[in-house]
């Protein structure tokens, strides 16, 4: 069984960082785009995919120019829908409700938002359709954590322990098959 490299890049800083940006479409800063381009400049990738949200697809388009690739936009790689919390700072959200969400995002999703299982289901579908060749996905922190859950088996508490700041790169080696598995090969911030 042949393995392939799967690189997950979190988009660069949005124009207003620190907000719970799920489906809110916010442009990235020029510095955020440059940071993404620098993170992946040495990668050899044959497939470039991005969330359709502006903060991801703008970086992917710049990376595509650098690597002579056209990014495929796939909405399944978008961030978790934070519902009524979308676009708000965590400090402006009821601390008890936010705590319940962080403890169990499936049982306590944001009001009007998406449960964790919804995010993992769409990311699992996107993963299942990947062509097994060196791939870069420009995405968000939630889908990156969903991949770690799906391919490496990390639970919710373990997933929150990963620091995935804007522009961070997570590289995995993936072995496709009846039960796809992955090995983390690097995390760069």
Kindly describe this structure.
The chain has 189 residues and is of the alpha/beta class. 34% of the residues lie in helices and 17% in strands. It has a six-stranded mixed β-sheet with strand order 3-2-4-1-5-6, sandwiched between helices. The radius of gyration is 16 Å and the shape is globular.
Summed up, what is this model?
With 189 residues, this protein is an alpha/beta fold. Helices cover 34% and strands 17% of the residues.
How many β-strand stretches?
6
Question: What is the average per-residue confidence, as pLDDT, rounded to a whole number?
Answer: 93
Low-confidence stretches: none
Contiguous helical run count: 6
H and E order: EHEHEHHEHHEE
Which descriptors apply to this entry?
189 residues; alpha/beta; 6-stranded mixed β-sheet; 6 helices; globular
Topology readout:
Layout: E1 4-10, H1 30-40, E2 47-50, H2 54-67, E3 72-73, H3 95-103, H4 116-128, E4 135-139, H5 141-152, H6 156-160, E5 169-175, E6 181-188
Parallel strand pairs: 1-4, 2-3, 2-4
Antiparallel strand pairs: 1-5, 5-6
Helix pairs in contact: 1-2, 4-5
């Amino acid at each position: 069984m042949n393995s392939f490299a799967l690189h997950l890049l979190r988009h660069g800083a949005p124009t207003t960082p620190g907000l719970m940006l799920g489906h809110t479409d916010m442009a990235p800063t020029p510095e955020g785009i440059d940071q993404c381009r620098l993170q992946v400049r040495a990668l050899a990738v044959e497939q470039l995919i991005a969330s359709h949200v502006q903060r991801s697809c703008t970086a992917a388009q710049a990376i595509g120019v650098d690597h002579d690739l056209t990014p495929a936009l796939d909405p399944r790689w978008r961030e978790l829908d934070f519902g009524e919390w979308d676009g708000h700072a965590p400090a402006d959200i009821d601390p008890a409700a936010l705590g319940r969400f962080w403890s169990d995002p499936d049982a306590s999703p944001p009001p009007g938002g998406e449960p964790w299982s919804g995010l993992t289901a769409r990311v699992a579908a996107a993963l299942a359709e990947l062509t097994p060749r060196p791939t870069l996905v420009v995405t968000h922190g939630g889908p990156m954590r969903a991949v770690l859950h799906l391919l490496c088996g990390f639970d919710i508490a373990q997933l929150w322990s990963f620091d995935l700041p804007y522009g961070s790169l997570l590289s995995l080696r993936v072995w496709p098959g009846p039960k796809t598995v992955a090995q983390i090969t690097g995390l760069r911030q």
